[in-house]
Amino acid sequence: MRIPIRDLPVVIGANAKRLRKDADLTLDAMAIAARRRGLKWNTSRVADFEAGRVSPNLATLTAYAFALADAGCGDITLSDLVESSTDIRVNDAMTLHRTDLHDVMTGDPIASKLGPRAFIGPLRLKTGNQILIDLADDAAEEEAERVARYLERTDAETVISVVSASGSTEERIHRALRISPALLAAVSAALWGRSFSDERDARAGANANAQKRGQITRRLQAELKGELDNGDD
């Protein structure tokens, strides 16, 4: 099942355009209102903003929200600009459920959005070992099926905790093994219940030198490769 996803600037721009049109305002009227709030924008810049071709920072977003209110868009809030019927891609490593950003901007704690609705690459994990997959091609589908098999041996929350604990070591390992970060997280969770680097540190001990840590790293990498090879039989 393909999950609809839009980039954050596209979501913001579409909402800005909707609010402007609902108030029967022209691009020129919005450009004037924006300039009064300190944005040096012309009609072309407003059009670019509405088309999602501008990535606004918080200062720009705040100024434009005030400009919308000045121009006659009513009692709008910043959260009105992030309403979405699709999930929202914040950056390459972070995609949010369609309601999460709106909820956070209206007062929900960020911590309440962690856990079951976290995203890992193309996979959105949910409780009960169920996943929804946004597939770009057949190769992604094949990899997603491999991740799903490992999820049967663990749970979404464990995989999410593994991702949270992952860093540069995991990045090197998934590249060396030519697998995605999602698959590395899933197989690590299934094998050890924790990230590659956490398992390495646990086996090496607190006072391990670089040589011992390197030996453990190679041993764990061999375990992963063996598991992945056997899992594909």
Question: How is this structure best described in words?
Answer:
The protein is mainly alpha-helical and 233 residues long. The protein folds into 2 domains: 1-113, lambda repressor-like DNA-binding domains (434 Repressor (Amino-terminal Domain)); 136-231, no CATH class. The protein has 11 helices and 6 strands. It has helices at 8-22, 27-36, 43-50, 58-71, 100-105, 138-151, 156-164, 168-177, 181-192, 196-204, 210-231; strands spanning 5-7, 87-91, 94-96, 119-120, 123-126, 130-133. The protein has a 3-stranded mixed sheet. The protein has a 3-stranded antiparallel sheet with strand order 4-5-6. The longest helix is centred in the last third of the chain and has 22 residues, at 210-231.
Sum this structure up briefly.
This protein has helices spanning 8-22, 27-36, 43-50, 58-71, 100-105, 138-151, 156-164, 168-177, 181-192, 196-204, 210-231; strands at 5-7, 87-91, 94-96, 119-120, 123-126, 130-133. Helix 2 crosses helix 3 and helix 7 (156-164) crosses helix 9 (181-192).
Number of E-type strands: 6
- Termini separation comes to 26 Å
Provide the β-strand percentage band: 5-15%
Label the structural class. mainly alpha
Mean pLDDT: 83
Element-level helix/strand string: EHHHHEEHEEEHHHHHH
Instruction: Determine the fraction of residues in helical runs and give it as a percent range.
Output: 55-70%
CATH level 4 superfamily of the largest domain: lambda repressor-like DNA-binding domains
Q: Which CATH top level class of the largest domain fits? A: Mainly Alpha
Summarize the main sheet.
Answer: 3 strands, mixed
Low-pLDDT runs of 5+ residues are 115-123, 125-139
Per the principal axes of the C-alpha atoms, what is the gross shape? elongated
Q: How many individual domains? A: 2
Could you say what the CATH topology of the largest domain is called?
Answer: 434 Repressor (Amino-terminal Domain)
Number of H/I helices: 11
